[in-house]
Write a structure and sequence with these properties.
Layout: H1 5-20, H2 25-39, H3 43-51, E1 55-63, E2 71-80, E3 86-89, E4 99-103, E5 109-118, E6 123-127, E7 150-155, E8 163-177, E9 182-189, E10 201-203, E11 209-216, E12 224-228, H4 229-240, H5 242-246, E13 248-249, E14 252-254, E15 262-265, H6 270-273, E16 281-285, E17 288-289, H7 293-300, E18 309-315, E19 318-324, E20 327-328, E21 340-342, E22 344-350, E23 366-370, E24 384-394, E25 398-407, E26 410-414, E27 417-422, E28 429-437, E29 440-450, E30 456-463, E31 466-470, E32 476-479
Helix pairs in contact: 1-2, 4-7
């Protein structure tokens, strides 16, 4: 039975009357006590009991850059995505670096490593190693939210530990600017939200997460904002990208929403060779049970190419165990590069384009040295393109992720391999790609164009021992110029 606020009041009055009318003292007390407990089970109570084991306290500790003896503590919240210890939180909680940990309710803190960051959406995925399986939160939907429907916010305000506040959905589709990023489509709620609630769930009357608490409106009372869960559903497969991140090819697509049903099998892929078919329901990957596409992506993290992988599927009412052999992607070898100096070569072109031009057919208006991927003489202008060329010093063997965030289009190549394709006329947007690399110098090319309006370009990377960060000038080189 779904309960409403008026229903709770009416039920309380009826039970009070029934208690007064009881004829037997013992029976009356028993019935009254049981009835009072039922009447007090509000939506907030039931949401707390359903979700409390799926909410964690996120803490980040870091030394002060000016005084190593001083330690800074930052507190936030997170939600459990899988029994194996994957946790979703806000990226802004990790913006200053440091050592991360996730504390279980009534349990101990566990060191947490950052698996993926999405600065644009303000989302991050952490991994802890719990002593026992965790309880994942139930993901609902935000597309059918009702203005005025009751919601509950769970989190760790001011580091005080798990706390609950209740309210309603005040509005949807709100745009807001936080001190970290711009949020174009948010849920507004009057449920009390404070520093430390960031990364905690906004839960509906069914105990389903419909949003991730993220920010408040400065100077206002009872105006909090949460990232809609449907936006999170769209972001997670791209953030996780287990094949790209793991440097292997399996070759199957699974539905992002609902049961983990196979939607496509690539021709000639290891998945096809294993006998996987479109329409199969994936119920286990390796040793992990899978109920959704998110479960499959999480289970594939840590898979390595060349190792056998057991996929259990349900097909035509029968369970089948299929053995796939994901193919490892051969890392790209470095090149022999001598007589280098720090920096990049930056070429600037002028013109009007709807996509990146053919630079080979153009003559640069200016060629100069750049210390990093900056707009240089294009800052504040329209109708120009830039091409950066040089070498990237890769510190260790492994899989590297590269990002370009640009307004308008951009692309990034390592050697002759296109790694990031963010081309076209568009507002500020970020794209990412992965590539396995050997340590050493690798040719890098970044192309960018701006037709009109705002102009921006940011080039970042992540890899072994490297959290996502702008590529530093110390890693960039170009052939030494005469004179």
């Amino acid at each position: 039975m779904r309960r409403t606020g008026t229903g709770w009041v009416a039920a309380g009055l009826l039970l009070a009357v029934a208690g007064c009318a009881a004829t037997g003292p013992s029976a009356g007390r028993a019935a009254g006590a049981e009835g009072r407990l039922r009447a007090r089970r509000s939506i907030a109570v039931e949401a707390y009991e359903a979700c409390r084991r799926s909410v964690v306290n996120v803490g980040v500790t870091r030394p002060d850059p000016k005084d190593p003896k001083v330690t800074h503590f930052e507190r936030g919240s997170g939600v459990v995505l899988s029994a194996s210890g994957y946790v979703l939180t806000n990226a802004h909680s990790l913006r200053n670096g440091g050592q991360s940990a996730a504390g279980l309710q009534g349990g101990k803190d566990h060191p947490a490593r950052v698996v993926a960051l999405d600065d644009r959406r303000d989302l991050a995925i952490l991994k802890i190693e719990p002593d026992e399986p965790l309880r994942p939160i139930v993901l609902g939907h935000s597309r059918d939210l009702l203005i005025g429907e009751p919601v509950v916010c769970l989190g760790n305000p001011f580091g005080m530990g798990l706390s609950v506040s209740s309210g309603i959905v005040s509005a949807v589709g709100r745009a807001t600017q936080s001190d970290y990023t711009f949020h174009p489509d948010m849920i507004q709620t009057d449920a009390s939200t404070n520093p430390g609630n960031s990364g905690g769930p906004l839960v509906n009357a069914l105990g389903e997460m419909v949003g991730l608490s993220t920010t408040t409106k400065l100077g206002a009372n009872n105006i909090g904002f949460a990232i809609p869960v449907d936006r999170i559903r769209e972001a997670l497969p791209e953030m996780l990208d287990p094949e790209g991140r793991g440097g292997f090819v399996l070759g199957m697509d699974v539905a992002a929403d609902g049961p983990a049903r196979v939607t496509a099998v690539a021709e000639g892929s290891p998945a096809q060779a294993a006998g996987l078919r479109t329409g199969d329901l994936v119920v286990r990957v390796g040793g992990a049970s899978t109920c959704s596409g998110l479960d499959v992506d999480l289970a594939l993290l840590g898979v390595r190419g060349g190792e056998p992988l057991i996929l259990r599927v349900l097909r035509g009412g029968r369970f089948l165990d299929l053995t796939a052999h994901p193919t490892a992607i051969e890392p790209l070898a470095p090149v022999a590069a001598a007589d280098l100096e720090p920096g990049l070569t930056r070429e600037m072109y002028t013109g009007q384009w709807d996509a990146l031009p053919d630079f080979a057919a153009l003559k640069p208006a200016e060629t100069a040295k750049a210390d990093a991927f900056d707009l240089g003489p294009g800052q504040g202008k329209d109708g120009f393109a830039l091409r950066f060329t040089g070498y990237l010093d890769v510190p260790a063997d492994g899989v590297y992720g590269f990002y370009t965030a640009s307004d308008d289009g951009s692309r990034l190549w390592i050697g002759d391999r296109l790694v990031v394709d963010n081309d076209g006329l568009h507002p500020a947007a970020e794209r990412r790609g992965f590539i396995p690399l050997r340590a050493g110098k690798h040719p890098i090319t970044v192309a960018y164009f701006e037709r009109g309006g705002e102009e921006s370009l940011k080039v970042s990377w992540e890899g072994p021992g490297l959290l996502k960060q702008p590529i530093p000038a110390s890693a960039l080189f170009r052939p030494k110029q005469a004179g």
